[in-house]
Each structure stands twice: as structure tokens, then as C-alpha cells.
């Protein structure tokens, strides 16, 4: 999978699109004004740039995402794990001094079990 990087402003726009798609570009411009304080040209410029990168589609004034939120989060997560050196090193740094709930711990255990194959290897 190609690694897709979104800058903060791009992610904030995509977050709005993911929550509302398909969304009319005029309505999207209004929401961006309200939530992000962007003027109409700023929103349309971001739509154009993200469209050129194949991240969204703006056709007949209807905006839809071509990339799923989960794809972006996965790419960003992989980048953070690479910077830390390993998944355990990343989790140790992330959790240092932080408490998680019993429910979060159970969710993490389930995720690890689902990612592990029967030979004890992760896949």
C-alpha cells in the first residue's frame, strides 16, 4: 500500500468529509468556515490539491473520499512505529506514565490475539 501523508489542515478537512460524505462542496465550504475558520477560497484550494493527489473526488459539486480514514491512520501509525524502532518500543513510549482502562487492555489483548497466527507468529 502506498504511504499517504496528510498535513494537519488536510486531515482536518478530510475528517469533515469522512463524517459527511457524499457532501456538496458549497455545504462543505460552509462547514469549514464554521469549524475551521476557513474562507471559501481556502476550502476550494484544499479540495483541488487533495483531488490532484487522488485523496478525494469533487465531481458535479459532490465531494467524496477516495482514501479511507483507516488507511491514513494506518500509514501514520506505521510511521510512528518505524520512528520508535518497533511496536513494543512505540507502545512503551506511548504508555509511559499513562494508565489505560481494563476495557482498553482487553481490546488490545484481542487485537494481538487476532493478529497472531497459530504458530505464535504475528501476521
Layout of strands and helices, then pairs:
Layout: H1 8-20, E1 23-24, H2 25-36, H3 40-52, E2 56-59, E3 62-65, H4 69-84, H5 87-95, H6 102-115
Antiparallel strand pairs: 1-3, 2-3
Enumerate how many helices there are, as a single number. 6
Specify the biggest β-sheet. Answer: 3 strands, antiparallel
Q: What's the gyration radius in Å?
A: 19 Å
Class by alpha and beta content:
mainly alpha
Low-pLDDT regions: none
Overall geometric form: elongated
Strand order of the largest sheet: 1-3-2
Please provide a written account of the structure.
- This protein has six helices and three strands; from the N terminus they run αβααββααα.
- The protein has 123 residues and is mainly alpha-helical.
- A three-stranded antiparallel sheet has the order 1-3-2.
- The protein has helices spanning 8-20, 25-36, 40-52, 69-84, 87-95, 102-115, and strands at residues 23-24, 56-59, 62-65.
- The model has no long low-confidence stretch (mean pLDDT 91).
- It is elongated.
List its traits.
single chain, 123 residues, mainly alpha, 3-stranded antiparallel β-sheet, 6 helices, 63% helix
In short:
The chain is mainly alpha-helical.
Amino acid at each position: 500500500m502506498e504511504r499517504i501523508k496528510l498535513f494537519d489542515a488536510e486531515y482536518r478537512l478530510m475528517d469533515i468529509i469522512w463524517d459527511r460524505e457524499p457532501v456538496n462542496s458549497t455545504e462543505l465550504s460552509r462547514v469549514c468556515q464554521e469549524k475551521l475558520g476557513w474562507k471559501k477560497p481556502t476550502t476550494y484550494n484544499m479540495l483541488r490539491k487533495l483531488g490532484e493527489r487522488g485523496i478525494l473526488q469533487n465531481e458535479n459539486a459532490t465531494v467524496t473520499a477516495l482514501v479511507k480514514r483507516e488507511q491514513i491512520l494506518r500509514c501514520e501509525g506505521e510511521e510512528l512505529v518505524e520512528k520508535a524502532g518497533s511496536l513494543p518500543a512505540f507502545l512503551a513510549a506511548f504508555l509511559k506514565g499513562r494508565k489505560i482502562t481494563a476495557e482498553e487492555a482487553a481490546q488490545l489483548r484481542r487485537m494481538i490475539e487476532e493478529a497472531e497466527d497459530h504458530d505464535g507468529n504475528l501476521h
